[in-house]
Amino acid sequence: MAPVVFGDEGSWPGEAKFCSDCGTLLERALLYGRTRGACPDCGRIDFRSPSVAVAVLLRDARGRVLMVKRGPGSSRPGFWSIPAGYMDYGEEVRAAGAREVLEETGLVVEVADPIHVATNFHDPLKVSVCIWFAGRVTGGDPRPGSDAVEVGWFPLDDLPELAFETDAALFEQMMEAESF
């Protein structure tokens, strides 16, 4: 296959320019249905994988959802989201969700079943697959932490300005399900 130049249509920002095995400058080639980096020396193909993120949806006795206002240094500062973050390598997925809630809200939670899965494209340098879980507060006191500057409970029909389309899609599904 003829190599193509970095930055042509089909490539994503932040793609590797050098082979992770031997350090040779990668060539771009159409492989397996999309343009990828391919090493002309050792033959390694750069298969870029998305990150895994987790979110935990918490509701109080009045049906309100817990959200955090994103602070400086986070993506979409000043907007609100469900408590969420990236998994660490080797971390169990539900433990990652509980850790993120504790870091951002000060609350200890029990993480239950998955309720939503979507791909987040809001940051082209760090595309992620997010798994939203249902959760239940078991302890702690609400206080912002980590990359959150506020914590609040909101009714589904009066949500603040949301940071991510994927949270909005989940809330739409919830409102549709509750209208029956």
Report on this model:
The chain has helices at residues 93-105, 165-178; strands spanning 27-31, 34-38, 45-46, 51-58, 65-70, 80-81, 84-86, 107-120, 128-140, 148-154. It is elongated. Helix content is 15%, strand content 36%. It contains two helices and ten strands. A hairpin with a 2-residue loop joins β1 (27-31) and β2. The strands form three sheets. It has a four-stranded mixed beta sheet, with helices on both faces. Strands 1-2-3 form a three-stranded antiparallel beta sheet, with no helix packed on it. With 180 residues, the protein is an alpha+beta fold.
Compute the number of strand runs. 10
Distance between the termini: 55 Å
Q: Provide the gyration radius in Å.
A: 20 Å
Biggest beta sheet summary? 4 strands, mixed
Shape: elongated
**What's the average pLDDT?**
90
Order of helices and strands: EEEEEEEHEEEH
Q: How would the blueprint of this fold be written?
A:
Layout: E1 27-31, E2 34-38, E3 45-46, E4 51-58, E5 65-70, E6 80-81, E7 84-86, H1 93-105, E8 107-120, E9 128-140, E10 148-154, H2 165-178
Parallel strand pairs: 4-9
Antiparallel strand pairs: 1-2, 2-3, 4-7, 5-6, 5-10, 8-9
Can you describe this structure in just a few lines?
With 180 residues, the chain is of the alpha+beta class. The protein has helices spanning 93-105, 165-178; strands at residues 27-31, 34-38, 45-46, 51-58, 65-70, 80-81, 84-86, 107-120, 128-140, 148-154.
Descriptive terms for the model:
single chain, 180 residues, 4-stranded mixed β-sheet, 3-stranded antiparallel β-sheet, disordered N terminus
